Amino acid sequence: MVDSPLSINDLKVTYGELVAVNGLTLAVRPGEVYGLIGANGAGKSSAIKSVMGLTKYSGGKVMVFGHDPASDGVATRSLIGYVPEVSLLYDALTPREFLEYVASIRRLDAEAVALRLSDFSSALQIEREMDQAIATLSNGTKQKVMLVGALLHQPPLLLLDEPFNSLDPRSVRIMKDLLAAYVSGGKRSILFSTHTMEVAEVLCHRVGILDHGHLKGEGTMKELRRQIGRENATLEDVFLELTADRAEISRIADRLGNPLR
Amino acid sequence: MNAGEGQAALSDPPQMDWKERRRIAANFYKELSFQSVYALKSGNLFSGEKEGGRKDKAELAERRSFQSKITVSVMFAFTCASFFFIVTEGRYFLPTTLTPLYFDSTIIAMVLVVLFSLVWITGLQVALPFLSSQALTLLRALPIKEKDIERITIYAFIRLFDIPLATALVVFPITVGLALGSWVAALASVPAVAITEVFSLFLSLLTAKFFALRVSGSSGGSILSMATRWMYLILWTIPSLVITIFIAFSLQILGTLGQWESSSPLALKVLFSVFPFPYSYFVSALAIRPPLSIDILPWVVAAALYACLAWLAARWLVKAPLELGRTQIAVNFSAPASNRFVTSTPSVAIIKKDLRIASRTPAYAFLLLLPMLDAFILGLFTYVGNPNPDLADRYARAAVTVAVLLATFFGPVFFVTEVMGFSLTRTLPITQRTLILGKSLLITIVYIVAFILVAVLVASRVHDIEAFLFYAVAELPAVVAASLLEINILLWRAEKTGVPISSLYSGAWWATLVVVPGLIVAGLPLLVYEFLLTSSRANSALPFMAVVSVLLLVSISVAVLWKKDRPL
User: Fold this and answer.
1) Residue B556's closest CA among B471, B440, B468, B446?
2) Which among A92, A194, B95, B428 could bridge B360 via Cys, Cβ 3.0 to 4.6 Å?
3) Is B433 part of a structural domain of the chain?
4) Is A201's Cβ below 8 Å from some Cβ in B?
5) Which residues of chain B have pLDDT under 50?
6) Is residue B146 domain-resident?
7) What is the domain count for chain A?
């Protein structure tokens, strides 16, 4: 039996008294793009960081292709490409130097990576910035460098935490096409978090809706619509239905003097 | 209030009183402490489930900043207090013909120069986290008058190292008073210290700005651009080299000045018009009270001139932190040198990455360069005064010892770069063993380069070059062992707290604690050698030293690297 790319069972993450993730259970299947959507502070990033070992979790179990990141972190990380929500880059390096470092740690073949890098940098229009210090780059360019770094070793599992946040529309479109193609062979998988419903609706095979650390709903768009009983509902409708009281949103809008109410 | 009044109020915020400025500066300082300890803006992430709330962390960051200030203050106090011992005890055994007036003046000037260099180094360590904290961006987004922002920024900046500066201002006059037996002289030394601090702060901020404009954003690529950056960075080693030169060559300096006093009084006069000599002379003169003479007029003029310059520098300093916060790192786009892409083994990749970071990070680079340059300067001793071969041997060994101690002393700093990517490194398939080996290898390389520089320099001067080479090579395993131990302790701490040391200044307390076992390990073979050399077993000193060194390496390697195949 093939191990699931990623399975999370009853995950609990706490920061002092704050419970960021509470009993999260989900599984990412081979060849699937799984979208984790939720409001700010819903627990998306904490869940992803737990898989990467960047956040210690207080309960539950995480498995990546049958490896436990807590006890077998090196093997787990070699199977994952990760793009964090915030820039995790060495500001004093250039993108080329940074990517050489990442490729060296991952023991990749320089020639093969150079070809891949040439394609990526051309597609994402970062060729001009390849030899500039990362400190001088815009947030969008830094995001692109991190995306390239995550894709260099063509990992079977990509974890992307708000990957489109700072990207320009052209790059978003390219990344969407690239990610769709990335899993098309059925062997690679992607878990990504976002609060952009349109992107999730287009790109994801399945979506998990996270609210205050709890998974409120999960499934394909069809399954989610069935769950709320509205056949033509958009993902935003589903999300609001499962996570918030519409009447409360109207009240808040009234109080804030929203001219569109 | 109608809409027009509201707009007017927004466009013209009220002037703040000093209490309000101080209150905002206190918050600004909290943010600076927080960023200098946790370095979140540099890519660090909070990670532990056991961590408390943000408020606890802010308080902890302030506590750590306070600890660092105290550690640095102790160093400043020690420097100032050294004056007392040199003047009271040194005058009886130091080989100089200088009269007491000039002897005391020279020692005061030397201590002021060392203090000047220490404040400069500290200022550089503080200025860069200040620059990267981006706290000023938030302040500038608020409706606050430019003048108020200026004052708030200088309050917050000064608070970053107020205790060390105040310590020097208090301790130095007290030691002057005690050593010279004159409280008038003690009082006169206060402006001397204050002007020294103003000049060194001025240089700190100027060089920090230079770094932001010319070094930090410089493009990568060619070896030429990297070499150019390293040339810039050598500038940063100047303050520490000044300290070495003044300490190491103090005997020669005193001897030369003694000769000048009797045979070249004009040269002495010219020298004493250079800062900080005019001040040191007046402090000393107030204690000894020599007969008044027209001869001192040039020094009075020089002292007045330096006071004016210090006043101008102080005025510039009021605006400088704000200017520094505004400084944008210069971007010079250049066409990619090529599509080259070079990979290496993980341990070598860590070293390459660290050297590349150091080439754009002066605070880091100067610590890499310091052991080599200091060892080289001490190696020059084998030429000064044409010492006999035995003495030359001792100088050469002293140069190697300095390389050992400095490379080991600054070991913790070699871990500092990890703060910028500690979270990133933890996302890569890298074992603790690889990281420890990579970092230790870098420290070892620093020692080897320093040793080679010294060996080339002293080859024709030492009595027995083979014995000298054996001495340096025998010490090598202990250097590796010390660095393995230090890096392991730092990694353990980073793993436990989730945060590595982010700078030498903010992590001074921990860096100092870690250095102690490192220095013990690195120093043990040297002590064994010196002990046996003076005993009846002088012939076995070198072999014994080598055995101790190897034993240390073996035992520490096993303890440190055993079962370290888990990830960061």
Assistant:
1) B440
2) A92
3) yes
4) no
5) 1, 3, 6, 48-52, 419-420
6) no
7) 2
Write down the ipTM of this complex.
0.86
Please tell me which of the candidates A56, A107, A128 has its beta carbon nearest to residue B48.
A56
Give the pLDDT confidence score for residue B232 in this predicted structure. 65
CA atoms of A201 and A33, how far apart (whole Å): 11
Distance CA A16, CA B552 (A): 42
A90 close contact with B: CB closer than 8 A = yes
Q: B423 in contact with A at a CB cutoff of 8 Å?
A: yes
Q: What is the pLDDT of residues A140-199, one digit of tens each?
A: 898 899 999 999 999 999 999 988 887 888 888 888 888 889 998 888 999 999 888 888
**DSSP per residue, B479-510:** HHHHHHHHHHHHHHHHHHHS-----TTTTHHH
Residues A148 and A160 in one domain: no
Domain check: are B307 and B378 in the same one?
A: no
Residue B309 lies in a domain: yes
Q: Which residues of chain A have pLDDT under 50?
A: 1, 261
Domain, as residue range, for A194:
1-79+156-261
Last residue of a domain, one of A154, A185, A207: A154
- How confident is the model at residue A189, as a pLDDT? 95
Pick the closest to residue B415 from B86, B163, B39 (CA basis): B39
| pTM (2 d.p.) | 0.75
Residues B367 and B305 in one domain: no
- What is residue B49's predicted lDDT score, i.e. its pLDDT? 43
Amino acid at site A217? G
Q: What is the pLDDT of residue B547?
A: 96
Report the pLDDT value the prediction gives residue B555, as an integer from 0 to 100: 95
Q: Residue B222: helix, strand or coil by DSSP?
A: coil
**Residue of B333, B349, B565 lying closest to A105 (CB–CB):** B349
The predicted structure's pLDDT at residue A261: 46
Helix (H) or strand (E) holding B181: none
Pairing between strand A59-64 and A33-38? unpaired
Residue B224 sits in the same domain as residue B311: yes
Calculate how close chain B gets to A238, using CA atoms only, in Å: 32
Co-location of A178 and A222 in the same domain: yes
Q: What are the φ and ψ backbone dihedral angles of A49, each rounded to 5 degrees? A: -65, -30
Which of A135, A154, A173 delimits the end of a domain? Answer: A154
Q: Is B308's Cβ below 8 Å from some Cβ in A?
A: no
Rounded Cα–Cα distance for residues B522 and B555 (Å): 14
